[in-house]
Inverse folding.
């Protein structure tokens, strides 16, 4: 265990000196802040349009005033979650690949393998180091986005909102760790470092971009901005009746979506943050009752990814990188 922690400390020290890592995280933080600002500006535009409409109604003598749009602070994080699920996963792959590749490029791999450490000390240390790094990064992003909601969004937060943000932060940490561990295992298993990076990026393309996009495209409610059923002013009971006629199609679409870990991360985050209207302002217990299956699947994927990284980052596979 001491050897594992020593290697983890080495990874932390390396990443602290890595300018690329700092640039990537800074870019992710800026993108998240911009997304909060854009969402807040969009709501203010809606509010201004509503106020103008109310003034026009008053001028015409009408006494019927529609309900004002409500700002739900955590819904400002939608863009940040989407950036994290796409760019965060890509950055996690780059870091996971880098933990193996840098040892060869710096000429330290042979020295590292000459040390009397346990069989799993090297991969476990690398995974542990990245776990600590991502914990720190997610903590900083959580603080940044919380401050952005208060300052940029000018929206108050309650205690329950902070709890929801912390739950989403834990989910994000596990999601990023999954991709880093997967990249470590793929890179170690590949005969060439470049091949490992290419394979990892192909996996990212398929499960982060292609499969979720196909599922979204197959969803009829996503064909019109604001929702097809809402645009046609179809009530929820009637919407369910329509969808009942396409149960098989919807099952295929949903099955395709949930085959991607990205959708598990997205659905968990959207539910606990209340970004999805169905769970907005709902008790955490009710959200958990609907989402526990996704949480278990995500945890199982993390365990499988870490096991894959530790199990296949063997001395034999690493030694092939020396030649």
């Amino acid at each position: 265990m001491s050897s594992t922690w020593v290697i983890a400390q080495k990874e932390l020290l390396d990443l602290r000196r890595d300018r690329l890592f700092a640039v990537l995280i800074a870019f992710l933080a800026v993108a998240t802040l911009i997304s909060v600002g854009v969402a807040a500006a969009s709501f203010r535009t809606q509010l201004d349009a509503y106020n103008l409409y109310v003034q026009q109604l008053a001028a015409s003598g009408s006494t019927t005033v529609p309900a004002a749009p409500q700002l739900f602070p955590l819904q400002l994080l939608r863009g940040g979650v989407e950036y994290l699920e796409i760019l965060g996963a890509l950055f996690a792959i780059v870091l996971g690949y880098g933990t193996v590749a840098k040892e060869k490029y710096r000429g330290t791999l042979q020295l590292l393998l000459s040390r009397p450490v346990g069989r799993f000390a090297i991969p476990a240390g690398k995974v542990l180091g990245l776990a600590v790094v991502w914990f720190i990064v997610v903590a900083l992003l959580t603080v940044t986005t919380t401050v952005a909601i208060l300052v940029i969004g000018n929206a108050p937060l309650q205690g329950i909102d902070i709890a929801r943000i912390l739950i989403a932060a834990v989910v994000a940490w596990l999601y990023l760790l999954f991709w880093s561990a997967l990249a470590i295992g793929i890179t170690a298993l590949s005969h060439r470092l470049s091949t490992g990076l290419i394979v990892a990026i192909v996996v990212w393309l398929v499960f982060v971009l292609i499969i979720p996009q196909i599922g979204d495209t197959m969803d009829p409610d996503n064909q019109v901005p604001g929702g097809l059923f809402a645009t046609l002013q179809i009530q929820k009971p009637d919407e369910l009746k329509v969808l009942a006629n396409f149960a098989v199609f919807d099952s295929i679409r949903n099955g395709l979506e949930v085959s991607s870990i990205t959708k598990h991360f997205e659905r968990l985050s959207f539910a606990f943050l209340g970004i999805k209207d169905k769970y907005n302002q709902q008790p955490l217990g009710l959200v958990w009752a609907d989402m526990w299956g996704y949480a278990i699947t995500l945890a199982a994927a993390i365990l499988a990814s870490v096991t894959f990284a530790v199990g296949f980052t063997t001395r034999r596979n690493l030694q092939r990188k020396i030649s």
User: Anything to note?
Assistant: DSSP finds 13 helices and no strands in the chain. The mean pLDDT is 84.
